[in-house]
Amino acid sequence: MEMPALGGRCDNRYVEISADSLGDVLEVRVDATPIFSDESQKMTLEAFADTIVPGVKRFPDDRAIAGVVDDPGAVAAGALDLLVDPATGVAAGLAPLSDMLNAHAGAYAERTGLTLEDDVPAFVALPYEHRAELISELTAPGNPERDGWIVLVMFSNMAYDIVPHRPTEDVLAEGVPSLLTLGYAKPDSDGLWRFPDFGYNRELAKRHPNTTESGSPE
Amino acid sequence: MTTESTDVLIIGSGFGGSIAAYHLAAGGAKVTVLERGPWLSAKDFDHDYLLGSSYTRAFDFVAGDGMSLLGGNCVGGGSVVYFAALPRAPGFVFDRQGSIGRRVWPAAISREALNPWYDRVSEVLPVTQQDWGDITYSGGLWAAACNHSGHTANPVPVGVDASRCTNCNWMMAGCRFDAKQSLLLNYLPAALQHGAEIRPLHEVQKISHAGDGRYRVHYNTLDDVDYRVATGSGEIDAKIVIVAAGAGATPPILQRSEETLGTMPHAVGRYFSGNGERLNNAVINEERAAELLGIRRPNGKAYEAYQIGKGPVVACWDFLDAGLPEYDRFSMEQLFFPPGLGTILTQVQDATGPSWFGREKKELLRRWKSWLTIFLMTEDDNEGVFGAPPPTGNSFRISQQMLGRGPLRYDPTPNTLRGWAQADAKVKEILEKDGLATVMPWTNDVVGAYTVHPLSSCRIGDDPATSALDDRHELRGHPGIFVTDGSAVPTALTVNPALTIAALAERAIPGIVAAARDRGVDVTYGAPLPKAVTNSVARPAA
Ligand SMILES: Cc1cc2nc3c(=O)[nH]c(=O)nc-3n(C[C@H](O)[C@H](O)[C@H](O)COP(=O)(O)OP(=O)(O)OC[C@H]3O[C@@H](n4cnc5c(N)ncnc54)[C@H](O)[C@@H]3O)c2cc1C
Questions:
Q1: Torsions phi, psi for B188 (to 5 deg)
Q2: Using CA atoms, how far apart are residues A134 and A121, in angstroms rounded to an integer?
Q3: Nearest CA to ligand 1 atom 23
Q4: How many CB atoms lie within 10 A of CB B290?
Q5: Whose C-alpha in A41, A103, B49, B411 is 20 to 30 A from the C-alpha of B263?
Q6: What cofactor does this chain's UniProt record say it requires (chain B) (predicted)?
Q7: Structure pTM?
């Protein structure tokens, strides 16, 4: 079996993040800090999350956010908070993934003839369409590193779609984007969902003629 | 380390495990069930996407190569997180030849032969038939769309008590209202009453010989928040071992045991089926739905009701036709997947950029209330193969809960791909007719295909070359070890599998009781069927 890019094996509360296919094996404590050695690593992952679910720039010279839409996206929903949440188990892989992403972005720019400004990390310097193209390449079936990138994609997506690092009731009450953008209904006052009005209450098709007495197909 | 002992040791507390636990305990055997997940009941089932709520505590998501598996991880197994659609498998399924060119199922099993066992499980859970008045907006919309295309559509038999159901659609996190008939309401409380012991957070790693024909089962105990952390370990000797860890978790246990037990049958960890599963997502044109189907809610909307309901309630069975060739038969069932698991893989139709992430995908999410998900169950080719087992459990766990990377490789054959394509085309034809909706299948490029119905990875059969178990569910070459979970089901079923898994488990019990008696266990078969209770059984106080 291929080694997973980010796998957990635990002894004595130590987690070994096996990142063989990414060329890295790290031994870290579960609660190891700091996760990033510099801000640019964090900025790079913000740019990654923003490529998955794009958002509006948080401030005028926000470089991480490409600003291709005019409402909040994954970063505003807390993608970085989710990635560093111990529950996801990926924190230890973030700094190396960030560095690798920038290396890939540099190579991508060279291969496609793009000139990148060098005051920000290479991935951040890529225009949105190129960020998306690079992520498509990295996550494509057959890419030997795809496991690590897929995990980043999944959590970036989830950060926006369900904000799983925050209680859902709070997320809805505070008007965090995402679930509300989806049109997700709010719960009853006890925090539980109930839909008394749930159906058209009429026959809308004929049953299959061979349905058996148990209600199953023949 | 002290080694404990019991008569019957059961690995896993889903359908295969619970049914065996009840009958053997009720028959007088000392039964111990080891379950890797926590023991949760109604009050623990949260309506919350927060990591660490029941949604992740009770769930297992294992990404493989070409196929990702979803399953239960708690006492009650998949029954706690399932959607409770409980049809019987159509008769033609039992005559399938699949990839081996002759009947795959044991000669002793047909739909007719299985009906009495289906009846028993249906009485216990119980399974109920729905009226149109029970059908949710999404189910109704699917029925109306089928009808508009000249197709039939059936309310699906379910294990849901409609009088308690709030249509909250949180059933994947466990049912807070005990409306869903999980095993916590029937077989498990009855097994406990007869003295069965259930130990949560006990993950079995392997089986070895204990002498005198007995087996030794080795387990780790797991931290109740961080499942990556083992808090201890132990062993229990038993005269009979029943492996029921689910089709994604049974093979690694047996593969890991090969070193101590000796060679496993060739079919252990092979012939895996994803039940031919495939998901399609439609975005309904609300105006067209009102015009074409004449549907209207009291609030004036035609639909906008994706969030409302209780999972799958209506299916089209027009292509479950024994007259059609193998691989051309499939069912199409309406379904709900919550955001997160249910949004990531949906694709944008005619995307100019990436189809499953990015700007256009975000726009698609804005229409979420008008989504309709259609679940296809086709005939695959049993092409899944498990690689070497991970060091523990069934995956390298990545997150504290839920997410792991597993050894399954699934490379769909042309038969499977053709089946998926045909079923996709049919859904598209029905839902895009007259501009009712736009439809796209979920992408398989991210985590491969996606199945909530893992099957066949340790299957029954008459042919030792292509089946790991005989038709009594005994592991070939290892007398006294039985497998009663979804891994025993030989092929994809074209419908939801839980009732068939359960019926096969019921059918296997008399043989297991006989084997236990042969091994000196004082146990009889024939206890009355359990009576369902109204409150899910909680963990007894220590
Ligand atoms: C979201 C979802 C919806 C579903 N909806 C439906 C539906 O509507 N209709 C239907 O028919 N089917 C449905 N299913 C499928 C159904 O739940 C399964 O087919 C069924 O539960 C399988 O039964 P089983 O006995 O094979 O295993 P499971 O029910 O999966 O039980 C296996 C148990 O073993 C435990 N286990 C695993 N490894 C170990 C170990 N090493 N040691 C100890 N314990 C272990 C697991 O935690 C689990 O509790 C659904 C599944 C999911 C995930």
A1: -70, -50
A2: 15
A3: B15
A4: 16
A5: B411
A6: FAD
A7: 0.96
Q: Is A152 helix (H, G, I), strand (E, B) or coil?
A: helix
SS3 B174: coil
Coil vs helix vs strand at B508: helix
Q: What are phi and psi of B57, to 5 degrees?
A: -65, -40
Nearest-by-Cβ selection for A198 from B65, B309, B397: B309
Nearest to B147 by CA among A213, A208, A218: A208
Return the amino acid letter for B330.
Answer: F
List, for chain B, all residue ranges whose pLDDT scores fall below the cut of 70: none
φ, ψ for residue A83, nearest 5 deg = -60, -35
Domain boundaries, chain B: 3-518
Q: Residue A120: exposed, middle, or buried by beta-carbon count in 10 A (0-12, 13-18, 19+)?
A: middle
**Which of A69, A184, A205 is facing B146, going by the closest CB pair?**
A205
Please tell me if residue B168 touches chain A, with a CB cutoff of 8 Å: yes
Interface of B with A in 33-52 (CB under 8 A): 47-52
Please name the residue of chain A whose CA is at the shortest distance from the CA of residue B51: A164
CATH superfamily of B3-518: FAD/NAD(P)-binding domain (3.50.50.60)
B230 Cα to chain A: minimum distance (Å): 7
Q: Which residues of B touch A201 (CB under 8 A)?
A: 132-133
Residue A193 has which token pair?
A: 């969902």
Does the C-beta of B87 come closer than 6 Å to ligand 1? Answer: no
Q: Where are the domains of chain A?
A: 36-182
- pLDDT, tens digit, for every residue of A92-124? 999 999 999 999 999 999 999 999 999 999 999
Residue B501 Cβ contacting ligand 1 at under 6 Å: yes
Whole-number Å distance between alpha carbons of B147 and B125: 31
The string of DSSP letters for B30-77 reads -EEEE-SS----GGG--S--STTSHHHHTEEEEEEESEEEEEE-STTT
Residue holding tokens 């089962």? B217
Going by pLDDT thresholds of 50, 70 and 90, the confidence category of residue A33 is: low
Q: Is the CB of B174 under 6 A from ligand 1?
A: no
Give residue for tokens 């504290």.
B400
Spell out the residues 6+ positions from residue A196 whose beta carbon is closer than 8 angstroms to its own.
B166, B167
Continuous H helices in B183-301: 187-193, 250-261, 286-293
- Name every chain A residue with its beta carbon within 8 A of the beta carbon of B305: 198
Q: What is the DSSP string of B376-431?
A: EE------EEE-SPPSSTTSEE-SSSEEEEEEEEE---HHHHHHHHHHHHHHHHHH
State the distance from the centre of ligand 1 to the C-alpha of B39, rounded, in angstroms: 14
Which of A131, A137, A216 is the best substitution to test chain B (most B C-beta atoms within 10 A)?
A: A216
Q: Measure the CA–CA gap between B504 and B110, rounded to whole angstroms.
A: 11
Residue spans of alpha helices (H) in B125-278: 137-148, 187-193, 250-261
Query: Does the model's ipTM exceed the 0.90 cut?
Result: yes
Q: How far apart are CA A216 and CA A19, in angstroms?
A: 48
Which tokens belong to B28? 């007088």
The C-alpha atoms of residue A97 and residue A17 are separated, in whole angstroms, by: 12
Chain centre to alpha carbon of residue A4: 18
Q: What is the pLDDT of residue A3?
A: 32
